[in-house]
Amino acid sequence: MITQECQINADGPGFNCPGYQSPSFTYAGQVGVDPEMAMASSNMSMTGIQFFEDADHQDPIGLGNQTTHLFGLQNPMHFLTWSKGFPPIDASSDIFHDMTKGNYLQLVNGDNVFIVNCTSTIYRTVYAWVNGTILGSQQPEQGYYTSLAPPAYGAIFSAPFAIDSALGHLALQGAAALAAYKTEPQDVADKFAAEFSRAAVALTAGVMTPMPNMVEQSRNNTELLTRVPKVPLYCFVGLQILYALASVFVAILAWILTRPSEVQQVKSRLTVEGLAAGFLEPGGTQGRPVEDIEQLYSEHRRTKGDETSPESNKIGIRQTDAGGWVWVVGGQPQNSKTNEDSHAASKAVVSHATDTDVSEKSQKEV
Q1: Residue-wise pLDDT tens for the chain (366 aa)?
Q2: Per residue in 35-74, is it b (16+ CB within 10 Å) or e — as a string?
Q3: 3-class SS at 42?
Q4: 22 forms bridges with which residues in the sheet?
Q5: How many C-beta atoms surround the C-beta of residue 127 within 10 A?
Q6: Contact status, residue 171 vs residue 154, Cβ threshold 8 Å
């Protein structure tokens, strides 16, 4: 900012900076036009710009209606820009103390004014673009590198502002309005430079011509691949193999120590069928190992062609002489001997039940 270096009349419209005199803060700086015809009303917020051939501001470009040199073929570009009415608030507050104390921001006819000295350089950039990202290396064909653009680019990028086009004027005014709220001189200059660069690129994008890539390589894969560090991968696979081997070892150890054949025999006898066979079948059938629980029943142990094997036993409940009830098991008689054996077995069961009742009765009397 060079506001503090310029002579500004608090009651007058214009200002004098080293090498340049402006008729008014409302002068837009339009090239090829009489400055008196390019000034706005004194009560309006305004911004203006003036390009120069040199950095000392001794040779303005396009000043007045007699000039034929409207645009400067130069790179970098040198220019002054000024603002009136921004920020549109009272700058005497403590927020803008540094700005007003250093005369970077001054008051003219009730409006805040400031002046910025700028130099803008245009570069051509060659860059490597991979998967949407510009590589960071500043080496040819490995990242990006810049080179100074030809002088003609200076005329292209300065034209929208030099002719005071509607979009150029609005962009310049927007940059000044945003920069004016900064409370430090360097912050004001940096903000204005960023907004000016963005506007210059946007306003000249329409005259740019797309160019083919210098080197282009594309890859279309239907497979999804990824890069995995070897050490963690091998550790993971090794742990999985170790886990599988440990699981097999534990399973074999459990099979050996638990003796599954014996466990199966015990489990089969604890089922409803096994308990029924244990109480109702002869005791000799329970002492032999079986492959199936049905083999505990006598009717399933008959051999083929054995006519003497007993048929299916009948299970019933019979009242004892004492008035109680007991389970009895008897075979279906096929001959007299079988019938007698069955009767004897039933009698033995009844007698056993009777003796039990008598014994219980004697215990009660005692």
Answers
A1: 899 999 987 777 889 999 899 989 999 999 999 888 888 888 888 999 999 999 999 999 998 888 888 998 999 999 999 999 999 888 888 899 889 999 999 988 888 999 999 999 999 888 888 877 877 766 655 677 888 999 999 999 999 999 999 999 999 999 999 999 999 999 999 999 999 999 999 999 988 888 888 878 777 767 777 888 999 999 999 999 999 999 999 999 888 887 777 777 788 888 888 887 777 776 666 677 777 777 777 776 655 555 555 556 677 788 888 888 887 776 433 233 333 443 444 444 444 444 444 344 333 333
A2: beebbbeeeebbbbbbbbeeeebeebbbbeeeeeeebbeb
A3: coil
A4: 15
A5: 11
A6: no
Query: Tokens 């170790």 label which residue?
Result: 242
282 touches 310 (CB < 8 A): no
- Helices assigned H by DSSP within 152-210: 152-162, 166-179, 185-204
Instruction: State if pTM tops 0.85.
Output: no
Residue type, 257: L
Contact between residue 10 and residue 108 where contact means Cβ atoms under 8 Å apart? yes
Structure tokens at 148: 């100074």
